Recover the amino acids of this structure.
C-alpha cells in the first residue's frame, strides 16, 4: 500500500511541475498570487 501511495505522489508532483512550467512558458513572469489562483 505504501508503494502505491508513493506512486500517486510522484504522479501528482509531475502534474504540478508540468502546470508550473506551462504557466512560465506562456508568461514571462508569474507572481505568487497568480500561482495560487491556478
Amino acid at each position: 500500500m505504501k508503494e502505491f501511495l508513493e506512486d500517486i505522489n510522484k504522479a501528482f508532483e509531475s502534474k504540478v511541475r508540468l502546470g508550473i512550467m506551462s504557466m512560465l512558458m506562456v508568461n514571462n513572469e508569474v507572481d505568487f498570487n497568480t500561482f495560487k489562483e491556478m
Q: What stands out?
A: The chain has one domain: 1-37. The mean pLDDT is 78. DSSP finds two helices and no strands in the chain. Residues 1-37 form one domain.
